[in-house]
Amino acid sequence: MDIRKNDDIKLHIENMTSEGAAVGHCDGIAVFVRGAVTGDEIIAHIIKTSKRYCIGIVKEILTPSPYRTASDCSVSAKCGGCSFRDMTYEAERAFKQSRVEDAVRRIGHLDVPVRDIIGADCIDHYRNKAQYPVTIENGELTAGFYAYKSHRIVPCHACRLQPPVFEECLAAFADWVKAADITSYDEKSSRGLLRHLYLRRTSLGELMACAVINGHTLPAQDLLIQKLISIDGMKSICVNYNTENSNVILSHRTEVIWGRATICDSLLGKTFEVSPNSFYQVNHDQCEKLYRKAADYADLCGSETLIDLYCGAGTIGLTMADKAKTLYGIEIIPQAIENARRNAALNGVTNAEFICGDADFGARELEKRGVKADVVILDPPRKGCAPELINTVCRIAPDKIVYVSCDPATLARDLALLDEKGYVAQEITPVDMFPRTPHVETVCLLSPQ
């Protein structure tokens, strides 16, 4: 069968992709369809074709999958965020479990025990951070999220992943926009003022609101402050000045216009200050489960030297510092290092040193000092570890490596590289940090062969 654009074809959905799209095959050609669920029998309307694959949309569900459930979000079919609103949470967890297992076998070519995924007790309103792109027409603010693989904004002021108080914050910004005649940034012309709205809320109920602007002055600043401080929990109001022609949301220049520069959270009994630019896990409760598992794998007894690479605001290392002799944290973002040092002081941690630089620089610096690492924590960004960092880590020869990953594919690749250098993965545990989305966090224990 020669599949052409605008054809309607019958399709059995066989599986889901790492991006949350459904996939089936028609005459040997893979057909990708967003919004379908494994086990669905559908009529797919083809919107794009190539020699190797086709892309379609759901035109009709002939036989619904036993894993299908009704979406509880009116924009989930359009928004690029939640891929699994039409799937039961049990099936979602099973998919994420199999995704990790498949990556380790197929990409890493490794046979490693993968424990049952640690699921979430709450799958709604768990995110402590939101970054809303905005548009403004006739004085009316529209905030939301980008449609899948586009920069078209899907309006959504009441996202089910975000805490309800964020809706109050957006309403306050909307009142300010209308009263102050604020314009929105246009990517094509690089004109207009308001680019994004950035919100954070901690488990202690503390709120941070930040306007990201294409300019150097915030109009009607006092009015915006007046609107926002009426919201319960508001502790910090900031402006981030981003005049670059890029897709980067936050620049490095942030000014506090009211309240504190940071907000506080409590994590595994420790207090942490979080700034706009510092990395902090978006799901508090699942983060605690992840860090507990990482601590189990580290199995510290008080005499070890712990090196936390990609340490961010110091969270994962500081939650283990009480059971280590010495903690070293490495992070490339200066503001995050400042946060980490402040967090150590807040918690009375005196056995920690934080170094500003990329992970490989920090690891080599400690190597020059002759630091003997007992445990190394690797918590890299989605792209994983650079080969030179893996070489450096293996040279400093820790007794254990605890690898925390947000991408199973790069984890599997790096585990294979570490395996070649004598560090063998002993056990892997997936953690569902991001329910209703295709992302999955994973923690792995490695030890020398």
Outline the structure in words.
With 449 residues, the chain is an alpha/beta fold. The chain is built from 9 helices and 22 strands. The chain has helices at residues 89-106, 165-180, 221-228, 284-298, 315-318, 334-346, 359-369, 387-396, 408-420, and strands at residues 8-12, 15-16, 22-26, 29-34, 41-49, 53-63, 129-137, 140-146, 153-155, 194-201, 207-213, 234-241, 254-259, 263-267, 270-274, 305-309, 326-331, 352-356, 375-378, 400-405, 423-431, 441-448. The strands form 4 sheets. Strands 9-8-7-10-11-12-13 form a 7-stranded mixed sheet, with helices on one face. Strands 18-17-16-19-20-22-21 form a 7-stranded mixed sheet, sandwiched between helices. Helix 6 (334-346) links the parallel strand 17 and strand 18. The N and C termini lie far apart (52 Å).
Structural key phrases:
449 residues; alpha/beta; 7-stranded mixed β-sheet; 9 helices; 22 strands; 31% strand; globular
How many alpha or pi helices? 9
> Could you name the ranges where pLDDT drops below 50 across 5 or more consecutive residues?
none
**Spatial strand sequence of the major β-sheet:** 9-8-7-10-11-12-13
- Give the quaternary arrangement of the chains: single chain
Q: Describe the biggest sheet? A: 7 strands, mixed
Residue-averaged pLDDT? 95
Distance N to C terminus: 52 Å
Rounded to the nearest angstrom, the radius of gyration is 23 Å
Work out the strand percent.
25-35%
Question: What's the total count of β strands?
Answer: 22
What shape does the CA trace take? globular
Level of helix content?
10-25%
Given the helix and strand composition, which structural class is it? alpha/beta
